[in-house]
Design a protein that fits this description.
Blueprint (H helix, E strand, L loop, with lengths): L1 E6 L11 H6 L6 H4 L9 E4 L1 H5 L8 H8 L18 E4 L17 E4 L5 E7 L2 H9 L2 H23 L3 E4 L5 E17 L5 E15 L4 E2 L4 H5 L1 H18 L4 E7 L5 E9 L4 H6 L2 H11 L4 H8 L8 H13 L7 H5 L11 H8 L8 H11 L5 H13 L1 E4 L21 E4 H16 L10 H15 L5 H13 L3 E6 L5 H14 L3 E6 L2 H11 L3 E3 H10 L8 E6 L6 H14 L2 E6 L12 H9 L2 E3 L8 H9 L20 H17 L3 E4 L2 H14 L7 E5 L2 H17 L4 E11 L2 E9 L2 E4 L13 E10 L2 E8 L8 E6 L6 E3 L2 E3 H4 L4 E7 L7 H8 L2 E10 H8 L32
Parallel strand pairs: 14-18, 14-19, 15-16, 15-17, 17-18, 20-31, 21-29, 21-30, 30-31
Antiparallel strand pairs: 1-5, 2-7, 3-4, 5-8, 6-7, 7-8, 8-9, 10-11, 12-13, 22-23, 24-25, 24-28, 25-26, 26-27
Helix pairs in contact: 5-6, 6-8, 8-15, 10-11, 14-15, 15-16, 17-23, 17-24, 18-19, 18-20, 19-20, 22-23, 27-28
């Protein structure tokens, strides 16, 4: 496994670990412990072509490392512009300007700015490799560790070949890096003393460009290729172990239902699973802490011990003593006699379908990861051959376009690398657009203009207000001007419900009936309650149509709400049914908000072919300044009109940064940002503000980007609720579930949980909020009596759940942003995650609120997020991108018959 952590100017990562000191304090390994073979170098050693260019050799010294950490060469030469810039210590103040005190009554201090030390890349071997090292004799240990070191070196070379540095005004010229400066340091154990071979690779924040100039570097390629780097590491390690004579056992990774997930892993053949579990106490500690509601980061930090490990001699003696008591083969010759074992193989087609589970367009790194997961244990040459074979059967797509303003003399690699899409994915997309073209001019489903105008007049008289021009135009477009398919795009909070009420009245007045479809059942219930359109989840609608339980005809109008969240294949399936019946399809949504979970965007394909009606006036936020801020998340054309389509020209780097800065400044001016030194402090602050909120609990919405962060914040809120007497009785450890993810939860009477899967036999809907009225342990699980909150026209009700039969629920205190689209609450408390932050997620998070919004995070996390507020991460469709060759047209590719 490979992890990458950015280090602040003080040498800390976001968890506060002093990595530089940690490496310097590491006890050195010698041939006495590990044998001479392959162990000629020191435990702490130089790596990277940048180190070679600086003439660095031998064991790194504290002075050398400290100089490089500050941006200087060991001789004192500055290697970048901000070399030597120190972090500044400031005192944290609240929104009223008062000094914030910690639990001990001392002022909370923060460190800001300064030259970034660099990045800590840590390569960790599979546990069975570490156990093998522990049971081997001295010389063999050295060979095993040497195989790990060679795999680490191959990984560093891979990363070094990706990193880039910028030159010129605005960083327009992007150059490859000639070399990084890296200090590598081996460790044989984790903090609990279990065998765990891992190497920390501290890549300092400077690099030598191919132009011979030193500067800082852009780490984006490093982070984006993290999983690919892990594949490289494991492939080289597998190869090294086979060269030593060991076999590898391949295993199937099953999901929570025991089904093949498509992923394979490997361990050293002959190392028993029980042995691996015994020496995985660190992982068990973290899981136990997470069961108490801590995030993985919190659990890691809370349970970690000081890295004051025994000497290598003491560790090996201890490990071998334990192994002698286990049912584990410890004879190396016997282990080498075991050959490879293989799990059922995955075909190329299965790999491609899993690869395209979320994206219509993939890159080389995605192919490498997909192949490595399906063919775990394969060596680097085999992986490369498999990737090449898959690419030969795919459609080659041009690199992502780049704004003219960003075209320097040298382009970043991501703008020069081809991308890929399976041929059947291209066929699906073409079919969607061909169907749109075929029914563009149909007249049979159109409503007479006079009837629509009469409906609008009656509606305005009934409601006592006059429609805006764009609302009136949207209703006419959907009812009178479009053919068999139509698209309505609206900004967040634009009042699409009002337009839906109007077109429903118009179609029904024309003798037509409407059927609604949404991504989720809960959203369908909301659509039905607000518009009166009988609605189902899209998956349920498709299933019922196929079973004949829902029959479409030429007087039927199917409304696909929040269509911007629906992927291409689902839209294609729905269009097939709609077209076969002669029905009409209306897609309503926002392509600029949350993106589909699956590959591509069917709404984008339709809008690109048919155009769309647009609603651009925000109505949800109550204050003018909040409505203005919401609109900053959207781009505008030269005339100032909001851009809602997917086929926009790429923003330049300067435009994206300017947009990010503009949004950030408005958030800051509105006192909507709360920055702290650590993530733990930020989560604590969010919880305190949540309790201090003037709004009722049902009117407070906590938003997170990951379930991990949600559980960590939920634990803090639970603690406060317990202190206030709102949680009663004992605490129970219950295993919840969200899709394929197991969720360890701590629950008590009075807790809130969120249902995560439909259960018609229990009357439960995915997204329902429930309060635990009673909880008790049973034989092997728990019985929960739940009070289910009212939703739409459905009243609140009670139900008893036995967790052995149904455990699809999560904590009910924090929602992921993806779950929140379509919601609105007076107060929003948003915890940032820099890896998940982009323009779309921030737009949805901010526009959930009607009155109050606040963003919380660690200072360095918020700094990363600040630069990404203008960064688009919309789902791309293959045929809306350029083919790899200028002479190739997409309609010349094979397509599926209509």
């Amino acid at each position: 496994m490979i992890t990458i952590q950015a280090l602040t100017a003080r040498g800390n990562n976001a968890r506060g670990d002093a990595v530089l000191d940690y490496l310097l304090d590491t006890e050195r390994l010698t041939a006495y412990y590990l044998g001479a073979a392959g162990m000629e170098e020191q435990t702490l050693r130089w790596r990277g072509k940048g180190a070679e260019a600086l003439g660095l050799d031998g064991e790194p010294t504290r002075e050398q490392m400290q100089q490089l950490a500050r941006g200087f060469a060991p001789d004192g030469t500055a290697l970048c512009r901000n070399a030597g810039a120190e972090a500044q210590r400031t005192v944290k103040r609240d929104r009223n300007g008062e000094v914030v005190l910690d639990a001990n009554g001392k002022p909370v201090e923060q460190w800001r700015g300064g030259h970034r030390v660099g990045f800590d890349l840590t390569c960790s071997a599979p546990k069975s490799v570490s156990v093998l090292m522990a049971l081997a004799e001295v010389e063999e240990r050295g060979r095993i560790v040497a195989a790990h070191r060679r795999a680490v070196d191959a990984t560093l070379a891979f990363v070094e070949g990706l990193v880039e540095t910028r030159r010129g005004k605005g960083g327009r010229d992007v150059l490859s890096v000639e070399g990084l400066v890296v200090t590598a340091c081996d460790h044989l154990a984790n903090r609990n003393g279990d065998p765990q071979i891992h190497t920390h690779c501290l890549a300092y924040g400077v690099a030598l460009g191919v132009d011979g100039q030193w500067a800082t570097f852009d780490p984006i390629e490093m982070f984006e290729h993290q999983h690919a780097a892990d594949a490289i590491y494991k492939a080289h390690l597998a190869q090294g172990l086979r060269e030593l004579g060991y076999g590898l056992a391949q295993f199937v990774v099953c999901d929570l239902d025991g089904q093949d997930s498509g992923v394979r892993t490997w361990e050293v053949a002959g190392i028993e699973e029980a042995t691996i579990r015994h020496f995985s106490s660190r992982d068990a500690e973290i899981r136990a802490a997470m069961a108490q509601g801590l995030s993985h980061h919190d659990a890691w930090r809370t349970t970690r011990k000081h890295k004051d490990e025994p000497s290598p001699a003491e560790m090996f003696a201890h490990w071998q003593g334990l192994l002698a008591q286990m049912d584990q083969v410890v004879d190396v010759a016997a282990l080498k006699a075991l050959g490879d074992t293989h799990a059922p193989p995955r075909s190329d087609d299965e790999i491609l379908h899993r690869l395209h589970a979320h994206e219509a367009i993939v890159e080389d790194k995605d192919l490498l990861v997909a192949v490595s997961q399906a063919r775990a244990g394969a060596g680097p040459e085999q992986l490369a051959a498999d990737v090449a074979r898959l690419k030969a059967a795919m459609c080659e797509i041009a690199p992502p376009p780049i704004a003219v303003a960003d075209r320097g003399d040298h382009l970043a690699r991501r703008h020069t690398r081809s991308r890929w899409s399976a041929r059947w994915m291209v066929d699906w997309e073409q079919e969607v657009q061909q169907r749109a073209d075929a029914r563009r001019d149909e007249l049979a489903q159109r409503v007479p203009v006079a009837l629509v105008d009469a409906v609008i007049a009656d509606y305005q008289a009934e409601k006592g207000f006059v429609l805006s021009g764009e609302q009136r135009a949207a209703v006419r477009h959907l009812c009178c001007e479009s053919g068999g398919h139509a698209v309505l795009a609206g900004v967040a909070g634009a009042g699409k419900t009002t337009v839906a009420d109007l077109y429903k009245r118009a179609f029904e007045a024309n003798g037509q009936r409407l059927v609604g479809a949404c991504v989720s059942t809960r959203a369908a219930q909301k659509l039905e309650a607000e518009s009166g359109i009988a609605s189902l989840s899209l998956a349920m609608l498709l299933k019922r149509i196929e079973l004949g339980r829902v029959v479409l005809d030429d007087r039927c109008v199917v409304v696909l709400d929040e269509a911007g969240m629906v992927h291409t294949e689902q839209v294609r399936q729905l269009m097939r049914h709609v077209d076969a019946a002669g029905s009409r399809l209306l897609c309503s949504g926002d392509l600029r908000q949350l993106q589909p979970v699956g590959p591509g965007s069917g709404m984008a394909l339709l809008a690109q072919r048919l155009g769309q009606a647009e609603l651009t006036e925000v109505r949800r936020q109550k204050r003018v300044e909040d409505r203005d801020l919401a609109m900053l998340f959207y781009d505008r054309d030269a005339s100032g009109r909001v851009i809602l389509g997917a086929d926009t020209d790429p923003k330049s780097r300067a435009q994206a940064q300017a947009k990010s800065q503009q949004i950030w400044q408005q958030l800051k001016a509105g006192n909507k940002i709360d920055a702290w030194d650590t993530r733990q402090q930020a989560m604590d602050a969010l919880a305190l503000d949540w309790f201090d909120s003037a709004y009722g609990i049902d009117n407070r919405l906590v938003l997170v980007h990951t379930h991990e962060d949600g559980q960590a914040i939920a634990q803090r809120l639970r603690s406060g609720l317990r202190d206030r007497g709102m949680l009663e009785g004992g605490e129970f450890q219950v295993m919840g579930r969200q899709g394929g993810r197991a969720l360890p939860l701590t629950l008590a009477r009075g807790d809130r949980i969120r249902i995560t899967e439909n259960a018609p036999d229990l009357g439960l809907t995915n997204g329902d909020l429930a309060e635990i009225v009673a909880i008790r342990a049973n034989d092997g699980g728990h019985d929960l009596r739940l009070r289910i909150q009212a939703c739409g026209d459905r009243e609140a009700f009670s139900v008893v759940v036995r967790t052995q039969a149904f455990n699809h629920f999560n904590q009910g205190y924090a929602d992921t942003i993806h779950k929140s689209q379509g919601q609105g609450q007076p107060a929003v408390f948003h915890y940032v995650n820099p890896q998940q932050t982009d323009n779309q997620s921030m737009l949805v998070a901010f526009t959930r609120m009607t009155h109050h919004y606040r963003l919380y995070g660690a200072e360095q996390d918020l700094e990363v997020a600040r630069m990404k507020l203008g960064l688009d991460r919309t789902k791309q469709s293959a045929i809306l991108q350029a083919p790899s060759r200028p002479d190739l047209r997409w309609d010349e590719e094979p397509n599926m018959p209509i």
